[in-house]
Amino acid sequence: MSDLVAHLGNVHRYLIHLVEHRLAAPPDRVDLNVPTDTRGWPVAGRTPTHGPVPTSLIDWFVDGAARLAELFDSRDPAEPVWTWSQDQTVGFWARMQTIEAAVHRWDAENAIDAPQPVDSDLAADAIEQNFTVMAPFRRARTQAPPGLGERIRLRRTDGDDVWTVAFDGDTIELIDPTEPRHVELRGTASDLMLFLWHRIPADELLGVVGPRAVLDRYFTLVPPM
């Protein structure tokens, strides 16, 4: 849990610096405003960190999270700022951090065997964002193998959304959801999102239709970061 809290806290402080200063390029260094007393905090290269989460780490995290939320509320989402995507706006980071907070909230609850579903509308947005933003980025960063024409469909059971994604060479794109597919996954928006983020296996979804070999290849085509 301490490793998770520290990770998110570092991200929050990095983005506070980035957005506050309206940077057009990634900063060389960021002052994380770490307190003097860091007893019990995670140490790089020594994870996992066992034991209770230090109060000072919790306080530092809460302060950074609140400051970032206030900063997003005070800025125009269209305001230019550096990001690692083609979308160079504050809105990109607000969307990313909303999704990341939801995933890591689930992680924290899962660590104590009490995971709750992700909000359905947020999960649906995260699925679309995965295929249009995250998956292409992950493929490029990891030099994933070329697609061989795989077509994978995700059908939401708690709403009307359907996504069909096509892998052709180095290209990944959402296509007409009625196009033919090789394999189809069925589940709630939350479960489909958590599957895409490597949190739950396909066996926990409500259904998998089609050859499992195509599904198994998905995480080769879109490897984790």
What does this structure look like?
The structure is a single chain. By secondary structure, the protein is α+β, with helices and mostly antiparallel strands. The protein is built from 6 helices and 5 strands; from the N terminus they run ααααββββαβα. It has helices at residues 2-20, 55-74, 90-111, 120-142, 189-196, 212-221; strands at 147-156, 162-169, 171-175, 183-187, 207-209. Strands 3-2-1-4-5 form a 5-stranded mixed sheet. A hairpin with a 5-residue loop joins strand 1 and strand 2. Helix 1 (2-20) runs parallel beside helix 2. The longest helix has 23 residues, at 120-142. The two termini are 20 Å apart.
For this entry, give a set of tags.
5 strands, alpha+beta, 5-stranded mixed sheet, 45% helix, 225 residues
Q: How many runs of DSSP E, i.e. beta strands?
A: 5
Question: Which descriptor suits the 3D outline?
Answer: globular
Low-confidence segments, given as residue ranges, are: none
Quote the average pLDDT.
95
Largest sheet: 5 strands, mixed
The H/E string reads HHHHEEEEHEH
**Helix run count:** 6
Within the largest sheet, what's the order of strands?
Answer: 3-2-1-4-5
Helical fraction: 40-55%
Straight-line distance between termini:
20 Å
Question: How would the blueprint of this fold be written?
Answer:
Blueprint: H1 2-20, H2 55-74, H3 90-111, H4 120-142, E1 147-156, E2 162-169, E3 171-175, E4 183-187, H5 189-196, E5 207-209, H6 212-221
Parallel strand pairs: 1-4
Antiparallel strand pairs: 1-2, 2-3, 4-5
Q: What is shown here, in short?
A:
With 225 residues, the protein is α+β, with helices and mostly antiparallel strands.
